[in-house]
Design brief:
heterodimer, A: alpha/beta, abc type-2 transporter like fold, 2 domains, 4-stranded mixed sheet, 15 helices, B: 2 domains, 9% strand
């Protein structure tokens, strides 16, 4: 058979699958609604920034000194006072009921001790949310310390001053880090579900055999079942980038073609996994649940919400086998650092190798189950 | 015919169990997912920031500069992995992600300290992961402040008039594990309800057994409760499994009343399973039911309950929506019982809301089912 004919046939097959995807309202919902919901969720909900911590103040001293410290604490913007009292029991109640996350306790004689140079403010934190408590108690301690340094030197500068700069994300907004990363899990879930469902649906309907006996080669069949979804995923990638840039104003420092290249390489792995799932699933329902079971650990171990650097060493090594991790590193570096291939080639290489491997295995298994 | 006959109720439940036993993948999901999640969050995943990779550029080479470097090393928070000579390498180190933070001690550092001028130390942090960066900067500020205070005392005999003493309650070691495991109990129930029950009625429709079920002399309530019973059992086993693993394997404190946790779990589970049935009845198709179940229960349970992301941080509209998410209240109960050791005396409003939720959920399920039959 001549090459142009082959190409025509392939083109027809891809077109058919693509139309089928767009015509199925359920899939259309999945493709267009899911990204929007996720990006809004991760833009507005997933924020680990700590500010305006509900705070309870117990002042048993009733002096200007205690009020001055309280004012310094609230002026920082990290704490907002939700209640005051002079009974320590009220503090316990406020924390037990969850009305306050932090509490400052000025004991009787605070001002007198401060004049002698030995006063202590008690800071109490609700540790139930460990992240808020870690960051918040740090803020509280440093505000008190800075206040004490100022008082101790009678308003002069402390001996050492820290000048801080944050590169790549100067305002330290967790949103800038999280929103672009939505791509990683979205592409994974979409390609797993779309590919495995498409194959399994044909199997359920009994049309897979028809396709097998048609003059289409097995390779062409796989291309037909993956390329349309790859296109859909790339479309979603562009959609997410657009929302991130235009709505959430996430900075984009790097090159868009490089981002697309990363997306393509990443899709090799995810589509391969989708095909693999289709070979072990008999019903669409099974395919859906399997996709969920595969995607969940991959997302958790990708550094998406939980930094890889906080994992135990063994798991950090394990994440190297996770394509999502490499893709997210590329996406974040391109968005925030403007990094290029010079810095990111190991990640690109990893995606290429894993993609080729997974797609290869999937193709072989696919032939076996098909024939 | 009485509305609720135990024999017929159990017959429906038995049928459901038989069907469930053949659906291996759902069963695996029901038991493997909670354990997997727990192991992940117990062993692998955390927000605890330790061993932050750091580079120190010491341009001073003096005694004081060494003391400051030692203060960083001795803090146990930082791992000094590079000591470049000049500032030229900073960009490369941060770009490749080799270090998270760079401290630059200027050449005039020791001299400034000796003459009483303010010495400036520079900290450059990779801000891309804002949360880790914030924590790293926080540790840095604290170490520099303490160093400042020490210098002040040594050179001018000035003592700080006020110090702070911090105590962390409920989660003394500040482990994110202790925050997440109690929350997982709620999230796992959401998954069970969202993924499993949403299938049950849809399956009857898909297989055409719905008409058969309608033709049998069972009442609506019997069908709804009978279908719920097996899932209720699975859910309660999951809760017990999670709690036991959390307490004995991961040493999450459990300070409150087992009974109160069991009671509220029962109510929460009943309500959520009821919602799952409603979804299942509306969708009539297993695939659609799964998707709807995920969107209606799993996403809000995970994101809008305060499980990991503080509700206080959300914009007003979303904060208002969270009041409609039952997991929000249930999470207060699990955390309260596990970590705070409080019981009904503090958590009674949440308990009442759980009961209300169960009544509404089951009522809706019974209603949705009637509509299907006519």
């Amino acid at each position: 058979m001549r090459l142009p004919e082959r190409f025509d046939r392939l083109h027809e097959l891809v077109r058919k699958e693509f139309l089928q995807v767009l015509r199925d309202p359920r899939l259309a919902r999945l493709i267009f609604v899911a990204p929007v919901v996720q990006i809004l969720a991760f833009g507005y909900v997933v924020s680990t920034d700590v500010r305006r911590i509900p705070t309870f103040v117990v002042d048993q001293d009733h002096t200007q000194a205690a009020r001055d410290v309280t004012r310094t604490v609230t002026a920082s913007g990290y704490f907002r006072i939700v209640g005051r009292s002079d009974r320590p029991q009220d503090l316990v109640d406020a924390l037990d009921h969850g009305r306050a996350t932090a509490a400052f306790h000025f004991p009787r004689g605070f001002a007198r001790d401060a004049a002698r140079g030995a006063a202590t403010v008690q800071i109490i934190f609700d540790g139930t949310n460990s992240n808020t408590a870690t960051v918040g108690s740090g803020y509280a301690e440093r505000i008190i310390m800075a206040y004490a340094l100022r008082e101790g030197t009678l308003g002069r500068q402390p001996p050492v001053e820290l000048r801080e700069r944050a590169w790549f994300n100067p305002n330290l907004q967790s949103r800038d880090y999280n929103v672009p990363a939505v791509m990683g899990q979205l592409l994974l879930i979409l390609s797993l579900i779309l590919t495995s469902l498409a194959v399994v649906r044909e199997r359920e309907l009994g049309t897979l055999e028809q396709l097998m006996v048609s003059p289409l080669g097995p390779g062409e069949l796989i291309i037909g079942k993956t390329v349309p979804f790859a296109l859909v995923c790339l479309l979603d990638m562009i959609l997410i980038t657009a929302v991130a840039l235009l709505w959430f104003r996430v900075p984009f420092q790097g090159s868009f073609p490089l981002l697309l290249l990363a997306g393509l390489l990443y899709l090799l792995s995810t589509l391969g996994l989708g095909l693999l799932i289709s070979t072990v699933s008999n019903t669409q329902q099974e395919a859906m649940l399997s996709s969920f079971l595969v995607a969940m650990p991959m997302i958790l171990l990708s550094g998406f919400m939980f930094p890889v650097s906080s994992m135990p060493a063994a798991f950090q090594w394990l994440t190297l086998l996770n394509p999502v991790r490499h893709f997210l590193e590329i996406v974040r570096a391109i968005f925030l650092k403007g990094a290029g291939l010079g810095a990111l080639w190991p990640q690109y290489l990893a995606l290429l190798v894993m993609g080729a491997g997974l797609l290869g295995i999937a193709t072989r298994r696919f032939h076996k189950t098909a024939s | 015919m009485t509305a609720l006959d135990p024999v017929r109720l159990l017959a429906v439940a038995r049928k459901e169990v038989l069907q469930l036993r053949r659906d291996t993948r759902s069963l695996i999901l029901a038991f493997a997912l909670p354990v997997t999640l727990l192991v992940f969050f117990g062993y692998a995943i955390s927000w605890d920031v330790n061993d932050i990779r750091m580079a120190v550029v010491d341009q001073d080479h003096g005694q004081r500069a060494r003391e400051l470097t030692d203060a960083f090393r001795g803090s146990g928070r930082f791992l000094i992995v590079a000591r470049p000579e000049g500032t030229a390498d900073i960009g490369r180190l941060l770009d490749r992600g080799a270090v998270r933070i760079v401290i630059v001690i200027p050449p005039t550092f020791g001299r400034d300290l000796g003459t009483g001028r303010t010495a400036a130390v520079q900290a450059i942090v990779d801000g891309s992961d804002a949360n880790t960066a914030t924590i790293a900067l926080g540790f840095t500020q604290a170490i520099v402040q303490q160093f400042s205070a020490r210098v002040l005392f040594q050179t001018r005999r000035v003592r700080l008039p006020i110090t702070s003493a911090t105590r962390i309650w409920y989660n003394e070691e500040l482990a994110s594990r202790n925050m997440i495991v109690p929350g997982l109990v709620a999230v796992i129930m959401m998954i069970i309800a969202g993924l499993l029950t949403s299938l049950t009625i849809a399956r009857e429709w898909e297989r055409g057994t719905m008409e058969q079920l309608a033709a049998t002399p069972v009442s609506r309530l019997e069908v709804v409760l009978g279908k719920l019973l097996p899932y209720l059992a699975i859910g309660l086993v999951d809760v017990a499994l999670c709690s036991l693993l959390g307490v004995f394997l991961f040493h999450v404190p459990f300070r409150g009343s087992v009974l109160y946790l069991a009671g509220t779990s029962f109510a929460f589970l009943a309500g959520t399973l009821g919602l799952g049935l409603v979804i299942s009845a509306v969708a009539r198709n297993q695939l659609l039911a799964t998707q709807m179940g995920m969107i209606a229960t799993f996403l809000p349970g995970f994101l809008l309950s305060g499980f990991m992301f503080p509700i206080d941080n959300m914009p007003l509209v979303l904060r208002l929506i969270t009041y409609l998410v039952p997991a929000r209240y249930f999470l207060v109960v699990t955390r309260g019982v596990f970590l705070k050791g409080v019981g009904p005396e503090v958590l009674w409003p949440q308990g009442l809301l759980m009961i209300l939720y169960a009544v509404v959920g089951l009522g809706l399920a019974a209603r949705a089912f009637r509509k299907e039959l006519t």
